[in-house]
Amino acid sequence: MGEMEQLRKEAESLKDEITAARKAVQDLTLQDHVAGTAVVGRVQLKTRKTLRGHLSKIYAVHWGDSKLCVSASQDGKLIVWDSYTTNKVHAIPLKSSWVMTCAYAPSGNMVACGGLDNMCSIYNLKGKDGNVKVMRELAAHTGYLSCCRFLNDNEIITSSGDCTCVLWDIETGSQKTVFAGHLGDCMSLGVAPDFNTFISGACDFTAKLWDIRDGQCRQTFGGHESDINAIGFFPNGNAVITGSDDASCKLYDLRSDQELITYQDSGIMCGVTSLAPSLSGRLILAGYDDFNCNIWDSLKAERVGVLSGHDNRVSCIGVTPDGMACCTGSWDSFLKIWN
Amino acid sequence: MSGSSNIVAMKKIVQQLRFEANINRVKVSQAAAELQQFCIQNALQDPLLTGVSSSTNPFRTQKVCSFL
C-alpha cells in the first residue's frame, strides 16, 4: 500500500474514533435534560434608535462598550456611534471601500477594519491632535479579511478568505502566529471570554477551536451542510454557536466535544448571516438573508421572537456588554438598536 | 514535487486528527446541566430576557418635565 493510501486510511479510522468517542459520552441529549423546562415567553423587542448616516450596505458592527459601537459600510466609511444619542463620534474615511469587517478594541482606544484589500487597518481614536489616523496596516493575508477581533491594544486576531487566521503584533506589524487547518475561506471568528482561545467558522462547513498561545487547533466541529458565516461563544465560554448558509444555527459544547442542538425551522430557508447570544445565553439573536432577525430560546430550540424592520439583509448583529440592547446592521444602510 | 507535498499535508491532517481524538470528553448530561445552570443563574440579570423598564432604559428618550 502506498504511503498516501495508508495515511488516508489512518485519517478515516481516526475520524471514526472521534465519532465513537463523542457517542460514548452521550448519556443524555440536551433536549432530554431540558424536557421539564418551560420555553421562555415571547420576546418582543422594539427599535429604540435608528442610526442613520451610512450611504451603502453595512457589513459589520461591533460594540466597544455598552454605549459606543463602530460600523463599517461599503460607502467607504467606519462610523463610531454614541448609541444613546445617535451622534456620530467619528466618521473615518477608508482607503478601500470594500470593507467586510470592523472591530473596537476593549480599551476603546482603537478600531480596526479590513476586507477585499486583504489587510487589517488599525486606527488610533485617541491621537494627540484629535484626528483619527491609520496607525498600522497589517498585510500578509493572501485573501480577503472576513473578521477581526482585538485581544488588547497590541494584539489582534484576523480571519481570512485565504483559509487561515492570524494573531498579529500591532506595534511591529508582524504575524505572531498563523492558525492553519481550515480547508475553506474563514468567514468569522470569536474570542473566548477568558482570552485564551478563539473559534473560527469557515466555508469548509466546520468550526475550529484554537489555543491562542500555542497555535494548536484543539477541536473541530462539523455537522453544518454549508458555509458557516457567523460564530460566537456562549457567555460561559464552554459552548460555541454557529450560523450557516444551510439556514440553521448550531450549539456545540466544548467539554463534551459535540453538537448539542440545532436551531432550525422548516419555514426558514435562507442563510444565517450573523448571531449574538444575550447576556445569560438563554436567547440567541440571529440575522438572516430574508431581512429578519430571529430570536431563539437556546435551551429549547424554539423561536421566541422576530426583529423585523430592515428593508434588506441583516448582515451583522451585536449585543452590548451589559446586555441592555442589541444592534442590527443591514444592507439597507441603517443600524437599529433594540430592547 | 506535488506528490511529496501532498504526503506532508496528509501527515499534518493525520497528526491533527490524532490530537483531537485524544482529548478528554465530559458526559453530555454534565455539560447540559452546566449550560442550563448558567442560563438560570444569569436570567434575572439578562435585560433582553427580563425586559427593561423605561426609567432604566438608556435608549429610551426621557421625557423632560420642567416647572414653568
UniProtKB/TrEMBL annotation, chain A:
Keywords: Coiled coil, Repeat, Transducer, WD repeat. It comes from the Eukaryota. One of its GO terms (biological process) is signal transduction. WD repeats lie at residues 51-91, 138-178, 179-220, 221-262, 307-339. The keyword Coiled coil applies. Residues 1-31 form a coiled coil. Belongs to the WD repeat G protein beta family. This is Guanine nucleotide-binding protein G(I)/G(S)/G(T) subunit beta-3-like. It comes from Carassius auratus (Goldfish).
UniProtKB/TrEMBL annotation, chain B:
The keyword NADP does not apply. Keywords: Cell membrane, Lipoprotein, Membrane, Methylation, Prenylation, Transducer. One of its GO terms (molecular function) is G-protein beta-subunit binding. It holds the Pfam family G-gamma. The keyword Protein transport does not apply. One of its GO terms (cellular component) is heterotrimeric G-protein complex. It is a lipid-anchor. Its main location: membrane. InterPro entries: G-protein_gamma (IPR001770), G-protein_gamma-like_dom (IPR015898), GGL_sf (IPR036284). It is found in: Cell membrane. It comes from the Eukaryota. Residues 3-68 form the G protein gamma domain. One of its GO terms (biological process) is G protein-coupled receptor signaling pathway. SUPFAM superfamilies: Transducin (heterotrimeric G protein), gamma chain. G proteins are composed of 3 units; alpha, beta and gamma. Belongs to the G protein gamma family. Guanine nucleotide-binding proteins (G proteins) are involved as a modulator or transducer in various transmembrane signaling systems. The beta and gamma chains are required for the GTPase activity, for replacement of GDP by GTP, and for G protein-effector interaction. This is Guanine nucleotide-binding protein subunit gamma.
